[in-house]
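User: My instructor asked us to take a sequence, write out its structure as tokens, and then describe one feature of it. I'm not sure where to start. Here is the sequence I was given:
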Amino acid sequence: MSQDDLSQCSMLDLFRMEANAQARTLTDGLLTIEAGGGSGATVEALIRAAHSIKGAAAIVGLDVVVQLAHGMEDAFVDAQNGVLQLTSARVDVLLGGVDLIVQLATLDAPAMPAWLAENTSRISAVMVALAGIGALPEAPAAAPVQALAPAPARPDADPAARAAGHNFDALLALASQTRINAHQLTPSLAALQRFKRGQWSLFKTLEQLHEAVLRGGDPTLIEQSALALQKADPLKQALHEHMSDLDDHERRALSVSNQLLDEVLALRMRPLRDGVHMFARMVRDLARSLGKQASLVIEGEDTLVDRDILARIESPLNHMLRNAVDHGIETPAQRLIAGKPAAGAIRLEAHHRNGMLSIVISDDGAGVDLERIRATIVQRKLASTAMAAAMSAAELLEFLFLPAFSLKQTTSAISGRGVGLDIVQQAIRAQNGSVRLETEAGRGMRTSITLPLSQSIVRSLVLDIQGEAYAIPIVKVERVLKLAPAALHTLENKQFFELDGEHLGLVSAAQLLELGQLAPTAGELAVVVIGSAARRYALVFDAIRGEQSLAVQPIDPLFGKLRDIASAALLDDGAPVLILDTADLLVSIDKLLGEGELHQLSGAGELAQLATRRVLVVDDSLTVREMERKLLLSRGYQVDLAIDGIDGWNVVRSGHYDLVITDVDMPRMDGIELVTLIRQDIHLHKLPVMIVSYKDRPEDRARGLTAGADYYLTKGSFHDETLLDAVLDLIGASGA
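Assistant: Let's start with the prediction itself. The structure tokens for your sequence are:
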């Protein structure tokens, strides 16, 4: 804060700022000493902090804070002189004094008398404890004497912070527009380059014409052509200079616009310590309340994070640390038996990696019992015994993110209520991040969180759907690949391909966003893999443009929440682009799968198979479907399968088929109804249909043919050649 800003603050505001800063110094110093890492300089810093608070409180007339700080200062002086050892029990008392100072500093002047009156007994207890701190036992106490430290007030809650946020949004929009304007010089340069090539061709023609005139010997023509060449030379030089100037201007404009954008973004960046400094105290107090010993080491406190992201991940980080203390760290006795130090160690590390924020929380506790997860999965009927036994460690740990999934036998105020990790995952994903768990029995747990550095600028993959640009944040993209038509497979109206030994379902992005059919292409399919674990899908786009850093602009609240859309932005060329919401996309895919209405992908696969006759087999019997499929494949036909009439109706409408072979008796919709719908459809009414049924009575045959079937064959009478001959009669041989 500048000197001009400070001049606008009242003395109470200045005291509040001083008290909060010094309280952090006191807390950090006390925890360092308790963990055995203190030194003479640490104690000296504690004395200075207490003395500063005492002086500031005296200026604003807060006698209670003066007395608290004075008592703490005396204790620190005794510790410096070797008279007093700062054991855990004594640190408890001193931290209790810090808590009171922090709470008093947050109060407005009118509210202070009432608060002091309500907390007289608590204040007196802390004063007495400070006065008698030397009489406390030297050995560490079994449990803390005060509650956990209150959370500091949110810095973004005041009106000034909200106003600064609005100002930032406006600055970001202007900086983004400046960058777009700089990028728009590129097409002008390209146009000049094309003009230069045309000019060169024209000048070359003039030179050739002049040479021809020289050979002709006509003095008048020679003079005129020479004059034309003379006038052309300055044009060459002028164009070259203009292009050079414009090129320099473009570089300067891009450099300035990028610097401006970086400076605007820097206004929102805060060091990680601003959001995590209270966690060391929380870990210490929570461990003591559970009869444990634990300390938190934070590395990378200076790592810069977007202000909004930092505010939104404080709660998830808090929960992961509480889990580490409650679930992971053992009691001192258990740790000593296991050959570990009595005090558990928890680490929170943060650093930038590949343009992302990486946060790792690890502990040296007992880890997670994977067999207990496996047993809980079976007990809750989330998977069969055989399926659970085959799951890997990573797959088992994914179940911890399910709502109400807990391994604790009893509930408490801290954990075991089945809420938490699912909320953690939701909060991280809401920031376009990801979270992953790892564990090693007896060695501890490791949680890896990856987040964008900023929500204002998002590195995104830009894709084409029906000629329009859409974007997906890079952090949400698992894989980008080109898929050959031959790699496409279809089963029961679902298309898939194999990736790393796993079958991944293919979904048309155009259908998902209700933009029609995927544009046909003679080449490979552009595929983007999203999701994780069992919810991984491959979205098929018309084309992949590449990566861009997009300045995110929220969609006007007037429109409400748009399905599958997270926000908007402008591309480097100024064109608008919608940024897709991958969480919504996964829900929409699940809905399409549940309704059985996925479109068959047209495009490369379809164009490559035009010469091959396509047959759709509709039958609720797996045995019959497979038998007919093998027969038809042996003759070169391409075969798709449907499990009943409804599935068959959805499939036949979404792809080009030369023949439908259907059973009669099927659930949801029988074969006669299917034939009737096909004959009534304006696009399908000429499609050949063959009925293959066990019903061989004349009236059954008449019913099928009346509905519009071209062929009626009974399952009890046909053999392999009978079916193949009937198919040959209806649609001819396959070109495959």
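For the description part of your assignment, you could build on this observation: The radius of gyration is 37 Å. Try explaining in your own words what that tells you about the chain.
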